[in-house]
Amino acid sequence: MYSHLALTTPVRTALDLVRELGQQAGFAAMESVLRASLIGIEEEPDLRFGYPPGFQRLARERAVESWYPAVERLKIGRTSARRMVDSFNPMSESIAESFCSFNLHALKINGFDQQVSIRDSNGFVARVDFLHEATRTIIEVDGIGKYLIEGRAAMNKESDRHNRLLALGYTVIRMRFKDLLHLNTFSAKLFAQAPTLRKFAGASR
After folding, report:
1. Taking the model in full, what pTM does it have?
2. Which CATH architecture has domain 93-205?
3. Of 93, 90, 92, 94, nearest in space to 67 by CA
4. Residue 19, class by beta-carbon neighbours within 10 Å (0-12 exposed, 13-18 middle, 19+ buried)?
5. Domains in the chain: boundaries
6. In Å, how far from its chain's centre is CA 156?
7. pLDDT in tens for each of the 205 residues of the chain?
């Protein structure tokens, strides 16, 4: 027991957290458990240049084997839990990315991919958090905390990276953690900076 919550398996506990903490936080827990089941929890491999082939396929197999049966055993909330399992992604590398992914699904915006590598004529530019290729929109999350640790060199490198993305014609939207907490705040910032995304949102159809 943890407080009043009975801890069982990681999968079932993540599903229980949807009821305890709300859908957004529960979704982040679900993605974290899925990711840990695929790549471990002690020390993540070096993924700077991408994920191994078949990573997404393996994630869907894990969903069928472990998650869907657990959802069917829920007494309440099966429909919303199944919808979240259909949407979760092991490529979310932080709680902030999970929150962002949840918000994009809540807005029913189709066409975003996670952890996409972008190149220009000089080679590798960046692996971005979220990319909507049809509108050339990039969403980056997590804020500037790492630059306070890594210093000016990291900030200069990020500035160069940002400018190269702009030169390629991308719109780059930076979401702070507080921007992700409320869907209205998130959507207002997203559509203000990338209004062409509205035609990809389910609400507009």
Report:
1. 0.89
2. 3-Layer(aba) Sandwich (3.40)
3. 90
4. middle
5. 1-91, 93-205
6. 25
7. 877 888 899 999 999 999 999 999 999 999 999 999 998 765 566 776 678 889 999 999 999 999 999 999 999 999 999 999 999 999 999 999 999 999 999 999 999 999 999 999 999 999 999 999 999 999 999 755 555 555 566 677 888 999 999 999 999 999 999 999 999 999 999 999 999 999 999 854 4
